[in-house]
């Protein structure tokens, strides 16, 4: 019988729902050692937290996240709160010996992230950042293709992550729904929210990034704050583009924006090498596109009349 893994969730927003659903369905799909038990959720708004708990089946509600850290009946702390809270929560959880699953971006600053890393390493607790795209079957297949040497020497990596939900100038910043637009809560804009995923995937597939040059832009300079009603300067980046050099000598281009009209969650990457290429588009997550130039088994170039991109259905 699977051992209980008692979960304390901090935050009840989109990520809280997504993670709770994953915990509830885990053992329906996978034969694993542990079975998550939804013990407690912590959030400032007790009424909304209670509604969340009732819907997902959490046993109790707390309005102070520290109560979850102190609780003896919680093994795992899931940090789904706004970015500004990650540092304090993660360090406290590590010191209490809890397993930590933290949303991205890990922290508001590099120094915060380093302190969090030091704390979990000192405590020796299991930990993870929620870079979930690694587990998309098509991306896992891309990793396998790369590891098998089918790409050969890599030359180019290009990634895009495009959305369009903040184009309107009357969209406010701040508050429970739009804290990602408030620099005090988020720390950054698309760089931390979207490009964090793109960068993690790139480094997982193509190795460390050694050098970058970047440009960010904030298109709407002021927005009304949802809580105070004041018009305030916007401190987050609406768009970011950067060039990268990888340790393996390949070059990368990364683009992310919330101002690509018509793009809702357009997340793509392509890796080009001497022997082949792979391409992925999250809007067709069941497919990995693969171009084979050099046939690995024979060591010979694919015959010209058979050369072309394959669209591999990963669930087949």
Any descriptors?
single chain, 316 residues, alpha/beta, Rossmann fold, Dihydrodipicolinate Reductase, domain 2, 2 domains, eight-stranded mixed sheet, six-stranded parallel sheet, 9 helices, 29% helix
Description:
The protein has 316 residues and is an alpha/beta fold. The chain folds into two domains: 3-130, 3-Layer(aba) Sandwich (Rossmann fold); 133-313, Dihydrodipicolinate Reductase, domain 2. It is 29% helix and 31% strand. An eight-stranded mixed sheet has the order 8-11-12-7-13-14-15-18, covered by helices on one side. Helix 6 (137-147) runs parallel beside helix 9 (190-206). The radius of gyration is 22 Å and the shape is globular. The two termini are 31 Å apart. The mean pLDDT is 96.
CATH superfamily of the largest domain: Dihydrodipicolinate Reductase, domain 2
Q: Which structural class should the secondary elements be placed in? A: alpha/beta
- Helices, by number, come to 9
- Give start-end ranges of low-pLDDT stretches: none
C-alpha geometry: globular
Helices and strands, with pairings:
Blueprint (H helix, E strand, L loop, with lengths): L2 E8 L3 H16 L4 E9 L3 H11 L3 E3 L3 H5 L5 E4 L6 H10 L3 E4 L7 H14 L3 E3 L7 H11 L6 E9 L12 H4 L4 H4 L3 H17 L2 E9 L4 E3 L6 E3 L5 E8 L4 E7 L8 E8 L2 E6 L5 E6 L1 E2 L4 E2 L7 E5 L3
Helix pairs in contact: 4-5, 6-9
């Amino acid at each position: 019988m699977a051992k209980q893994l008692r979960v304390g969730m901090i935050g009840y927003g989109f990520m809280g729902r997504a993670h709770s659903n994953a915990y509830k369905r885990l053992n329906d799909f996978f034969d694993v050692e542990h079975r998550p038990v939804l013990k407690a959720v912590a959030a400032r708004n007790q009424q909304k937290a209670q509604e969340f708990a009732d819907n997902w089946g959490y046993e109790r509600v707390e309005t102070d996240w520290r109560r979850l850290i102190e609780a003896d009946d919680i093994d795992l702390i899931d940090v789904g709160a706004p970015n500004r809270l990650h540092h304090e929560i993660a360090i406290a959880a590590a010191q209490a010996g809890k397993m930590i699953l933290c949303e991205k971006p890990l922290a508001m600053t590099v120094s915060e992230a380093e302190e969090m890393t030091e704390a979990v390493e000192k405590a020796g607790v299991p930990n993870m950042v929620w870079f979930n795209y690694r587990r998309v079957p098509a991306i896992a297949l891309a990793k396998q293709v790369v590891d098998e040497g089918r790409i050969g020497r890599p030359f180019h990596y290009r990634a895009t992550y495009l959305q369009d939900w903040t184009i309107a100038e009357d969209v406010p910043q701040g508050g429970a729904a739009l804290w990602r637009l408030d620099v005090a809560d988020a720390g950054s804009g698309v760089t931390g929210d979207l490009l964090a995923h793109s960068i993690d995937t790139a480094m997982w597939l193509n190795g460390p990034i050694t050098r970058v040059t970047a440009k960010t832009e904030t298109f709407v300079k002021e927005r009304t704050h949802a809580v105070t009603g004041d018009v305030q300067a916007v401190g987050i980046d609406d768009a970011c583009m950067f060039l990268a050099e990888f340790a393996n000598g390949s070059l990368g281009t990364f683009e992310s924006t919330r101002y690509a009209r018509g793009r809702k969650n357009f997340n793509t990457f392509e890796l080009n090498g001497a022997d082949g290429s792979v391409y992925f588009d999250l809007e067709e997550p069941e497919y990995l596109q693969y171009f084979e130039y050099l046939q690995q088994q024979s060591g010979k170039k694919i015959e010209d009349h058979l050369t072309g991109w394959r669209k591999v259905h990963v669930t087949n």
